[in-house]
Amino acid sequence: VWTLKGATFDPSPLVIEAKGDFTIKFINTNATAAELECKGLKIEKPVVAGGTIVVRVLNPKPGTYDCVDEPHEDVAKAQIIIK
């Protein structure tokens, strides 16, 4: 589970021990809509205020991937680390 509260992603970074495809449950606790964007993992998915989405990542490669809440990308930043 990955949560956006204000401009903070929790946990940050999100560390995943991947042995193949995986899913991320993303919760937006804010009163405004968000958009989870991680270009390196080809994730770009909106989430309504107070909403939850599930994102499936296919064939991930180990590495560190920068992510943002696109409408607030100047302040809402995080990383996904795939080991």
Protein topology:
Blueprint (H helix, E strand, L loop, with lengths): L1 E4 L2 E3 L3 E3 L5 E7 L5 E5 L4 E5 L4 E6 L5 E7 L7 E6 L1
Parallel strand pairs: 1-4, 3-9
Antiparallel strand pairs: 1-2, 4-7, 5-6, 5-8, 8-9
Describe the protein's architecture and organization.
- Helix content is 0%, strand content 55%.
- It is built from no helices and nine strands.
- The model has no long low-confidence stretch (mean pLDDT 96).
Q: What is the compact description of this entry?
A:
The chain is mostly beta strands and 83 residues long.
What is the approximate shape? globular
Helical amount = under 10%
Give the integer mean of the pLDDT values. 96
Structural class: mainly beta
Task: Tell me what portion of residues adopts beta-strand conformation.
Answer: over 45%
Count the beta strands.
9
Report how far the terminal alpha carbons are from each other: 17 Å
Q: Largest sheet, described in full?
A: 5 strands, mixed
Keywords:
single chain, 83 residues, mainly beta, five-stranded mixed β-sheet, four-stranded mixed β-sheet, 55% strand, globular
